[in-house]
Amino acid sequence: MGLVNLLFGRPLASSEDQGQRITPTQGVPTFGLDALSSAAYGPEAALTILLFLGLAGVRYVVPLTGAVIILLLIVYFSYRQTIAAYPSGGGSYTVAKENLGPGAGLLAAAALMIDYLLNVAVGISAGIGALVSAVPSLQKHTLLLCLVVLAILSIVNLRGVREAGSAFLAPTYLFVGTLGVVILIGLFRVIMTGGHPHALVPPPPPPAATEAVGLWLLLRAFASGCTALTGVEAVSNGVQAFREPVIPAAHKTLSTIVLILTGLLAGIAALVYYYGIAATDPGQPGYQSVLSMVTAAVAGKGVLYGLTMFSVLLVLCLSANTSFADFPRLCRAVAIDNYLPHSLTARGRRLVYSQGIWVLTILAAILLIVFGGVTDRLIPLFAVGAFLAFTLSQAGMVAHWWRNHGSAHHILINGIGAVATGITVLVIASAKFTEGAWVVVLLIPAVILLMTRVHRHYELVAREIEAKGRPIPRSNLPPIVIVPIESWNAVTEKTLRFAMTLSGEVQGVHIACDEDDSITAEWQSVVAGPAQEAGFPVPRLITLHSPYRMVLQPVVDYVLKVEKENRHRVVAVAIATMMERHWYHYFLHNQRGEALTAMLLLRGDRRINIINVPWYLLA
Amino acid sequence: MGLVNLLFGRPLASSEDQGQRITPTQGVPTFGLDALSSAAYGPEAALTILLFLGLAGVRYVVPLTGAVIILLLIVYFSYRQTIAAYPSGGGSYTVAKENLGPGAGLLAAAALMIDYLLNVAVGISAGIGALVSAVPSLQKHTLLLCLVVLAILSIVNLRGVREAGSAFLAPTYLFVGTLGVVILIGLFRVIMTGGHPHALVPPPPPPAATEAVGLWLLLRAFASGCTALTGVEAVSNGVQAFREPVIPAAHKTLSTIVLILTGLLAGIAALVYYYGIAATDPGQPGYQSVLSMVTAAVAGKGVLYGLTMFSVLLVLCLSANTSFADFPRLCRAVAIDNYLPHSLTARGRRLVYSQGIWVLTILAAILLIVFGGVTDRLIPLFAVGAFLAFTLSQAGMVAHWWRNHGSAHHILINGIGAVATGITVLVIASAKFTEGAWVVVLLIPAVILLMTRVHRHYELVAREIEAKGRPIPRSNLPPIVIVPIESWNAVTEKTLRFAMTLSGEVQGVHIACDEDDSITAEWQSVVAGPAQEAGFPVPRLITLHSPYRMVLQPVVDYVLKVEKENRHRVVAVAIATMMERHWYHYFLHNQRGEALTAMLLLRGDRRINIINVPWYLLA
Questions:
Q1: Which stretches of A54-109 are assigned E, i.e. beta strand?
Q2: What is the pLDDT of residues B222-243, one digit of tens each?
Q3: Are B134 and B307 in contact (CB under 8 A)?
Q4: I need a labelling partner for A87 at 20 to 30 A (CA). Which of A39, A131, B220, B307 fits?
């Protein structure tokens, strides 16, 4: 247990729950890393689409970012309301299920699960991608590095939600701090130069325009920019992770995240506009990220540049943490409703839903391994799930206010949110359909199907094992106890002795492979004779010949025969089980006790029970 | 079972044993392939050493082969006597053990086991080596081809000893036939030309001499030539595989093998001498095997040449069959004496000792894989084991005759055998020590150590589980039955109902992870209340709180506590076990029944028994 304690921390009692809850300060890294890190790739994604417009594209950055920020604020106000209405954790699943029905709930759940999983793989691989492009000698270790980051994230999260919040506090605020300083310096220069700042490191000139401005292109740029919003729903899912009173704490966390994100998005957009920075083609050799160009233009390639770039790649790696905080909670909510395995509802030693963390880790590791740690091709799949969940959650809230006679103000906010995110889903899905979003469109129904099958099974089982409530003590006959005997020894004697305390009807079954293999003499002198003398019921010895030298099959057949012949009786098979002291003694003893137990359980019936009488070898 | 029957044949009843036994005709391929195939490499091995003498070396072929044949005949007569004296299977192990003591027996067994294992790897790899040097495009599949041959040999042998004898009949007689024809033609030409035959394909000229003739070189050549004798002991080990009367059948088989081998060795030596054929260096490009040169010189490179070469490589591949016939018998003899796992003594579905075949297959596969199918480096290890076993077996026979007042004639034959093979062991071991024979010298004590450890364990166990013979029926109290209850349902009710038929003392143990988790009401209405009314002993409900949410550990602790507090009672834990109908439902139900069983068996004690009450899910 030493290593386990060191790695995962000492077990926490259920009563320590309150002490494990987090403050808003810890809430920002816990739930906000996904949203905040998107400041690093949201503007970049939009600008990459605008690349086709050449220099003219840069002009559209400001209105596009404005639209994204407006959508962000709509979503923000909607989720504030959701948090207040569902203080016990109003994830999209819960809200959609309770207000729009189980189908909508499952749709939201499936969409979010896929989104969270992709977030882990893409976030880690983006961070490591930035690292290896800065230090090319690490290129060949890409996958290993990705898996190391995944392992760190998963261990920290298995240590508990508070540990994760504390551990990732520093990188989060380093990221916000350095980027904030860059933006402030930049804006100061913009103002001082009357809107014509001089770039310390001039960005590469924008390419020639290859497309004219059109609605479709702008919509696609908008859809790409919207990836900046993923992760905003995270807080509403994890309200119960906060210290009491939970609602103000959750509100404060969400407000902080959205405020910072808005500031970063607006600041970056302004600098891009005034410094005239166009994206570079990610597939081409001269590629440089937008944030790198902005920082270099404002601050040159000095210490601040290095620190900012380092914090960006750190935060990209850690953006997966939001998934680790929310995915297990989502799975738990779904599993409580019997749509996923019940083990996902159990809290582990550190009061987190450990099973969900393991599942997420394993699935993400598989994704990373399959894609060799380079998940660029997964990026288009992203955001569809998140926005689908947004839409269902907002629509659910509209229904919620309607049913509970909420104010028109409430309905309006959530309604605008639903419409805006709904349109965004359509734009994203159609803009990115051929690039890979179709995979998500196929995956979601598959996940829903799986969940409904799980649900059906649990319902059938629940009906099957429903308590009958009939009084148990009745004058039931004791079972017929069958004792398979391989050879006569102290183990046999012990097993028989125990069997005879359980029932007056004991049968010894001996399998004889050879003609002269018999234990009749021992049986008579040790069992049957003394029983007769003492006036006890006399146990029977059955000897079965096995011409094909099978030892277990005849026993199983005999037990089934006895069970069939005694329709109103219960049968118990008492099996002597040798327990070796050392694992390397395994090959020295036949494992017939275990094998017979397994065969009887597999081929057996409800009226056959199995008694293991262990013999602990001293040798 | 369809595939299993197709692959391994229908199960054979023990009573079918006689029908499965073999005739001398089948005995030659079964036990003789190792010995006969050595006609292909024994002379070659000797000639390769004589290479250093240049043309002069060829002159020494005849006296050297003569010496080898004399040794062969000594060994032959010795083993004839052994067969007659030990008709139940007088392998070197048995003879050495019974006459020289267990230590000598184990030494012989260890040496032979290593020899048999090497024979499989080296034989297959030599055959496939000949194949790929004839068809170079197969070179890259060397390992795969080796493993395929190994699989075929192991399947055929698992089908029974008679099947193996019949299957390998044709290749054996093809080999003897083609090589016999070549020798006869060659000798005819030698006689017709007055000792100066004309080679149809002249052999390459011998290289210049690099060493002078010396005793050490001749001894080394003799030691190499002696590899032709390995496998001669095989028949004596497997006397019981023959039809009754076994002794004449075994004698006839051994005589046939030795007669053929003598003829082949003498014939090849004569042709080598008269055609003036020197070996070519196996490491060099122009390498050609001695048999290939002899055949080409006598018969040209026509159909007969192709057929002969084909039969040689076939027989090399199949020479491993001798090991498959003998290794399992040897292991069985050793296991009966408790020096190896008892499972090696069990006869499988086809009346062969299947476990030994599996062990040999797995070990040989590992050797082949480790060496990539090219086992040249293992060849020097070879023959040490075989000759060591020869020597011990002969020496054992001397002691046998001495003790049983055998005739001087008997003692003399076995005595000469012992001395001759003993000297050969020393020559081989010292000549090949640095080439790798030291590995065998280290391996043999390691194997012996392992066998004595196994023996010690079995002795301790036998003493431990020795039957006490005390009368079993006594007025023992029934056990205290503990029923762990996770939640109240029909499964719980069934388990409790069964427990209450076994004993008046039943305790329900409920683990409560939450404050409000209680089953007191159900217990009172379904169990305790009705029991009180009916005047039955009232079972107790124990509720244990688990602040750390562990479910199984508190149950185990409680059971151990009850066991400790009731020194003279036996405890039984009745565990409800959910049996899923489909494997893919595994994740949907906790496996706590199985886990608790395992934990109790591992941490439990002699007075704790485990009762599995299975519930077969219909869903």
A1: none
A2: 888 888 888 888 898 889 889 9
A3: no
A4: A39
A261 min Cα distance to partner chain B (Å):
39
CA angle B434, B439, B442 (to 5 degrees): 120
Whole-number Cα distances in Å, A95 to A107, A399, B82: 12, 10, 88
**Tokens (6 digits) for B78:** 């010795």
**Within-domain flag for A44:** yes
The verdict on B503 touching A (C-beta cutoff 8 Å) is yes
Place A250 in a pLDDT band, splitting at 50, 70 and 90: very high
For chain A, what is the radius of gyration of the CA atoms? 33
CATH code for the domain of B197: 1.20.1740.10
Query: Domain for residue B330, yes or no?
Result: yes
What percent of chain B is predicted at pLDDT more than 70? 99
H/E segment holding residue B24: helix B24-50
CA distance B436 to B442: 10
Chain B, residues 333-352, CB within 8 A of chain A, namely: 341-343, 346-347, 349
Claim to verify: residue B325 and residue B202 sit in the same structural domain: yes
CB-CB under 8 Å, A460 with B527: no
SS3 annotation, B592-611: HHHHHHHHHHHHCCCCEEEE
Residues B376-429: tens digit of each pLDDT = 777 767 778 888 998 999 899 999 999 988 888 889 888 988 988 898 888 888
> 264-283 in B: which are within 8 Å (CB) of A?
none
Query: Domain boundary at B428, B459, B490, which?
Result: B459
Distance separating alpha carbons of residues B471 and A523, to the nearest angstrom: 10
Looking at beta carbons, which residues of chain A come within 8 Å of B547?
Answer: 13-15
> Both tokens of residue A130?
């930035």
Strand partners, B577: B614
Q: Rounded CA gap, A397 and A235, in Å?
A: 16
Q: Are residues A448 and A532 in the same domain?
A: no
Q: Are A179 and A233 in the same domain? A: yes
Residue A581, both tokens: 């002291």
DSSP 8-state code for residue B319: T
| pLDDT for position B327 | 93
Are A486 and A517 part of one and the same domain? yes
Longest dimension (CA), chain A: 116
Task: In whole angstroms, give the CA distance from residue B602 to residue B381.
Answer: 44
Residues A455 and A485 in one domain: no
The answer to whether B318 and B32 have CB atoms below 8 angstroms apart is: no
Q: What is the number of structural domains in chain A?
A: 2
Tens of pLDDT, residue by residue over B272-283, are 999 988 888 776
In this structure, what CATH number is given to the domain that contains residue A491?
3.40.50.620
Phi, psi (deg, nearest 5) at residue B281: -70, 120
Structural contact between residues A166 and A321, judged by C-beta atoms closer than 8 angstroms: no
The pTM assigned to this predicted structure is 0.80
The answer to whether A490 contacts B608, with C-beta atoms less than 8 Å apart, is: no
Tell me, yes or no, whether A400 lies in a domain: yes
Same domain, A59 and A164: yes
A479 and A507 in contact (C-beta within 8 Å)? no
Neighbours of A586 (CB within 10 A): 10
Q: How far is Cα B248 from Cα B83, in angstroms, rounded to an integer?
A: 9
State the DSSP H helix or E strand holding residue B450, giving kind and residue range, or none if neither: helix B438-464
A377 in any annotated domain:
yes
DSSP per residue over A419-470, as a string? HHHHHHHHHHHHHSIIIIIHHHHHHHHHHHHHHHHHHHHHHHHHHHT-----
**In sequence order, what are the beta bridge partners of A615?**
A578
What CATH number has the domain bearing residue B558? 3.40.50
Quote the domain boundaries for residue A78. Answer: 2-459
| Pair (B503, B536) in one structural domain | yes
- Residue B164 is which amino acid? A
C-alpha to C-alpha distance for B126 and B128, rounded to whole angstroms: 6
Residues A380 and A486 in one domain: no
Is A214 buried (19+), middle (13-18) or exposed (0-12) by CB count in 10 A?
exposed
